[in-house]
Design brief:
About 30% of the residues lie in helices and about 40% in strands. The chain contains three helices and seven strands, in the order H-E-E-E-H-E-E-E-E-H. The protein is globular and about 50 Å long. It has helices spanning about 1-10, 70-80, 125-145, and strands at about 20-35, 40-50, 55-60, 90-95, 100-105, 110-115, 120.
Length: about 150
């Protein structure tokens, strides 16, 4: 079900081409520590696009009845669990009706994130095109970094 909406976009963006690998239900762990204790958080990334061992894009999907922003905390947690060699990671959250993009910069001690506006997939052709362009830009940017 999760790939029904996202798969055509990933295909058009070129993520099913050689050098990219699309995986579903990828297990991940992150440990959060403060002065007193450490908490281990485990989860499953709905869709992970990788190139070699480099995380290109994580995708978190939520049911259509939920607002797309409900997936932001979970997606950010997954972005923080990306391999340490990555200074920036990209994510996408969707509920099948809407999409938003996330970028997590981990260059500083405190990670910073930015988010895109929310794009409506069903009602607006121009916004569907913007989502596709966003995916293509992420793929091209990562490809340039890896070259």
């Amino acid at each position: 079900m999760k790939l029904v909406v996202v798969s055509p976009l990933l295909d058009l963006a070129g993520f099913y081409q050689f050098s990219f690998l699309v995986k579903a239900e990828v297990s991940t762990n992150i440990e959060v520590a403060d002065e007193a204790n450490a908490i281990a958080i485990q989860g499953r990334i709905d869709i992970l696009v990788i190139q070699d061992s480099f995380w290109v894009l994580i995708i978190e999907s939520k049911p259509a009845r939920l607002d797309v922003t409900a997936g932001i905390p979970q997606a950010l947690t997954y972005l923080l669990s990306a391999p340490d060699l990555q200074s920036s990671c990209y994510g996408m959250v969707t509920n099948g009706r809407e999409v938003l993009f996330l970028k997590c910069d981990r260059l500083q001690n405190t990670p910073q994130y930015t988010r895109s506006p929310t794009y409506r997939l069903l009602e607006n052709t121009a916004e569907r095109i913007q989502v596709l362009q966003g995916l293509k830009q992420i793929g091209a940017y990562i490809g340039d970094l890896r070259s």
